[in-house]
Amino acid sequence: MSHNNFRRHLAVPALGAALLAFGSGCGDSVGPTVEPGPDLTTVQGAIFALEDHYSRRQAEEAIALLAPDYTFTPALPESIPFLAMGETTWDYDQETAILNEMLVPEMTSWLDQVLLEITAQTITRNADSSDVVVEAEVELSFLIGSVDLVQSQSEITMKYRRDSEGNYRLYDEVEALSLNPDTMEPWKEFTVGELRAQSLEDPLP
Residue 173: which H helix or E strand, with range? Predict the structure, then answer.
């Protein structure tokens, strides 16, 4: 995907929302129309909300989609700068730090735009609990300085559970390499975990 296509993709939701707001302002309605929030009572809605908050760079809202016991297990823990030797996961606090750095509402760092795409392959519901397991292909892209597009791809097992309000929260992600079956080499230069962790570091070369 070229960086022009990347930026065009991000512009579509914003344009659609603007047209909706304009159309809603016509007629006999009084006052501004408030768009309904994402439907977090379904796993599909929770996934869409996560993608949307990434593209809109809404850190607080993205963090609110996580359970307090959230963990991320990267496919290549040795390549994650902030993990000590022998550590294989990061927790909610570390994920919060990543999102607060990555999803800034205005350009205040080297990172310009973010795109998260989650393609669910299977969705399995646990008959003994409210847990739902999603096997997904995940792509994360950064646009750096409005010029350089850096892409990553991984296979990620995402685990959701309902909270006390009936909304699904993401509490566990386990990453695996996404490989080209013809070459058995990774599709992209980075894994999703590596690129997310990179948001805490200096700009990519």
Answer: strand 168-177
The correct answer on CATH 3.40.190.10 for the domain covering 3-24+37-198 is no
pLDDT digits (tens, 9 = 90+) for 170-190: 999 999 998 777 776 776 889
SS3 183: coil
Unique residue bearing structure tokens 């646009």:
143
Q: Is 25 left (phi over 0), alpha (psi -120 to 50) or beta?
A: alpha
In this prediction the pTM is 0.76
DSSP letters along 48-100, please? HHHHHHHHTT-HHHHHTTEEEEEEEE-S-GGG-TTSPTT---EEHHHHHHHHH
Domain ranges within the chain, ordered by starting residue: 3-24+37-198
